[in-house]
Every structure is written in structure tokens, then in C-alpha cells.
Design a protein that fits this description.
The complex is a heterotrimer of chains A (170), B (92) and C (113).
Chain A: H1 2-27, H2 32-53, H3 68-95, E1 101-106, H4 112-124, E2 128-134, E3 137-142, H5 150-168
Antiparallel strand pairs in A: 1-3, 2-3
Helix pairs in contact in A: 1-2, 3-5, 4-5
Chain B: H1 2-26, H2 30-55, H3 58-87
Helix pairs in contact in B: 1-2, 2-3
Chain C: H1 3-28, H2 32-56, H3 61-91
The chains are: A mainly alpha (170), B mainly alpha (92), C mainly alpha (113).
């Protein structure tokens, strides 16, 4: 029971810190009134929502806190992937060559946040859209499908991203 | 030259928005209309940012930031509403 | 033209290219999923290129910092919006378009693993 209370407190503090960092980023002012108001507001919101924000079963800090260096690196790589698959897509639009298909595969990422980031990365690159994410089971609409083997399709769609995301929330 | 570039970019984004609105009005199913609306929101966001840089006013960018963060809540509401309508057995 | 303006011109030109390709694709493909894929060009890549161009032409640091924050949050919010639309399309049971369909059996069938 004690460990659970402690874990609840840690989740509460992490939520508060995250909200306060966002407040500082958006207001971009260091007046005392703004700082105090932000602190009170983030404490109040964190007390109400920390159970939803970080689920209780995420019982490992490494699943929640990202590695900052890999996070920044991944944003740059994601922009590169975005342009790479956009060029493929432009070619497909003007030639009309396409083989759209829905593929199902699993991911081996453990953390909820990492799975969410993987699904969003798949959606943001033109050519693949996540239709459903259920635990570790992804349903993806793939515009350039060339295989009917589930594992191979999964490797082609998510392989390059999954490796980088695994480094962020290892 | 800088103002000319920004000026033409604004016109291109307006044309994009008009074409998206055509798709929004034509689209045969509700899903097509939602796709057009999704693209329209992105184009509106880009227009706000480019206009804010062209006019050198921070206010446009603050509006764009809030629109960026809470823009998808509208889709959530519309999608939920349409799903309820479908499950009630009504025609879209 | 300064160097800054040349880079901005490249960014805006790629925005125009991707945007018009996305709009063409949105009218060319027949089903919502493919329209979403093509529209993602206009709704994500073109918008992101416009942001990059605006960042290059930003007149002062306050505007540049806000554009950077908007870009980072756009990478989170854009796929969330498309995901909501895609999920709605999937759950309302829209079939998938197949260009050279040999069978009539469409979606909702799991791949053999």
C-alpha cells in the first residue's frame, strides 16, 4: 500500500511539472502573478487528472520520461521521413500507380506513450494511416502495399521508426 | 521581395482553402467531408502563420498556436456526433 | 535577393508543389482512405513547408520562437486529427478501393499470419 501511495505521488508531481512547463512555454512571461497563478492552476489540474494522464499500470519511470537527446533527434528524423514519403506520394498521385490495402501487425514497444507516438508517426507520413490501435495491435491502411505477409508488411511500415522510438522510451 | 513571397504564399493558401471547400460541398459521404475539413484546418493554420509573419504581428501567431492545439477537438465532436447518428440507424 | 530569401523561396515552392499534388489527389482517388492519403500531402507536408518558409523569413526572435513552438505542436496535432477522421471512416465500415480488384471481397478480413 505504501509503494502505491508513493507511486501516486510521483505521478502527481510529474503531471504538475509537465503542466507547469507548458504554462511557462505558452505564457512566456516571468511576472510573479503569472508564475503563481500557473503553479496553482497546474497543481489543481494535476490533482484532478493525474490518474488519467499517467495510467496506474505504467509502473516504470523509464516508460514515461523520454530521453531528451533521442527525442530531439527523432523529431528531425520524423521531418526527414515526412518529406521522403511525400515524394513517393507525389509520384503516385501523378502516375496513378497504387495498391491500397489494410494490413494488421503487432509492435514490440511496451510503453503506452511510445505506442501512441508510433501510431502518430505512421499517420503523419503520407502513404500510411493508422486506423486502429488496440494494445499492441495496429491496423494500418497502406497505400503502396506489395506484400501479403503480415510480419513483413509490419517491418516495412514501422521498422525504421520503431527502432528510434525504442531508444526514446527504452 | 520578402513581402512579395509572403503575399503570393497567402494567395496560394487561399486557393487551397477554396478547393477544399469545393470538396467539402461535393463529397458524397460524411467521411469525404471530414477529410476535406481536416485539410482545411491545416491550411487555415498555415495561413494564420504566414499572415502573422507578413504583418509582423505576434497576435496572429498566438491565435494560430491555440488553434493548433485545440483544432482537433472539433473533429472529435463531429465524428462522435456522426457515429451516434449512424448507430441510431439514420441516413447520413 | 538575399540568401535567406532563396531558402524561403525553395520552402514555399515545395509547399506549392506538395499542396497542388495533394489537391489533385484528393479529386482523383475514389475512396475516403486514398483521399486522406493524398490530402495528407496538402494538409501536412505543404503546411509544414509553409511553416519552414515562415520561420526563415521571421523578422524577429519573438515571432521565430512562436513559429518553432507551432511546428513542434503541429507534429503532434496533425496526426491526431487525421487519426480521428480515419477511425471514424474505419468504424463506419467504408470498404477499401482496390485498383485492379480480382475478388469482390474487400476490407475487414485479417491477413494470414
Amino acid at each position: 500500500m505504501r509503494a502505491e501511495k508513493k507511486w501516486g505521488f510521483i505521478r502527481f508531481m510529474l503531471t504538475t511539472l509537465f503542466l507547469y512547463a507548458l504554462w511557462l512555454l505558452f505564457t512566456a512571461s516571468i511576472e510573479p502573478y503569472s508564475l503563481i497563478f500557473g503553479a496553482v492552476g497546474s497543481l489543481l489540474i494535476a490533482a484532478l487528472t493525474y490518474n488519467i494522464f499517467i495510467a496506474r499500470h505504467q509502473a516504470n519511470l523509464r516508460y514515461i520520461i523520454p530521453n531528451p537527446f533521442h527525442l530531439v533527434l527523432y523529431i528531425v528524423i520524423l521531418v526527414f521521413f515526412l518529406y521522403q514519403s511525400s515524394i513517393h506520394m507525389v509520384r503516385a498521385v501523378f502516375t496513378g500507380k497504387a495498391s491500397p490495402r489494410i494490413v494488421h501487425f503487432r509492435t514490440r514497444l511496451k510503453s503506452d506513450i511510445a505506442r501512441m507516438v508510433l501510431a502518430n508517426s505512421i499517420t503523419i507520413t503520407p502513404g500510411t494511416i493508422t486506423l486502429d490501435l488496440n494494445d499492441d495491435h495496429l491496423t494500418v491502411h497502406w497505400f503502396f502495399c506489395d506484400t501479403s505477409h503480415a510480419k513483413l508488411a509490419g517491418e516495412k511500415v514501422k521498422g525504421r521508426m520503431e527502432r528510434f522510438i525504442g531508444n526514446i522510451w527504452s | 521581395m520578402t513581402s512579395l513571397l509572403l503575399h503570393y504564399m497567402q494567395w496560394f493558401l487561399i486557393i487551397c482553402a477554396v478547393v477544399c471547400i469545393i470538396r467539402l460541398l461535393v463529397g458524397p459521404t460524411a467521411a469525404d467531408r471530414l477529410v476535406a475539413l481536416n485539410i482545411l484546418s491545416g491550411v487555415a493554420l498555415a495561413f494564420l502563420v504566414v499572415r502573422g509573419v507578413a504583418q509582423e504581428r505576434v497576435l496572429y501567431l498566438d491565435v494560430a498556436l491555440v488553434y493548433d492545439i485545440f483544432g482537433f477537438l472539433g473533429f472529435l465532436a463531429i465524428a462522435r456526433f456522426l457515429k451516434d447518428k449512424i448507430s441510431d440507424g439514420e441516413e447520413m | 535577393m538575399s540568401v535567406r530569401e532563396w531558402f524561403a523561396l525553395i520552402a514555399f515552392a515545395s509547399s506549392v508543389l506538395f499542396g497542388s499534388a495533394g489537391l489533385v489527389g484528393m479529386f482523383r482517388f475514389p475512396d475516403p482512405y486514398s483521399r486522406m492519403q493524398a490530402g495528407g500531402l496538402c494538409g501536412t507536408t505543404a503546411v509544414f513547408s509553409a511553416f519552414i518558409g515562415a520561420l526563415i523569413l521571421a523578422p524577429n526572435a519573438a515571432i521565430a520562437a512562436r513559429v518553432v513552438v507551432i511546428m513542434v505542436f503541429f507534429l503532434v496535432s496533425a496526426p491526431t486529427g487525421s487519426y480521428i477522421v480515419a477511425r471514424f471512416t474505419w468504424q463506419s465500415g467504408t470498404p477499401v478501393w482496390k485498383p485492379l480488384a480480382k475478388t469482390k471481397r474487400l476490407s475487414r478480413k485479417k491477413e494470414p499470419t
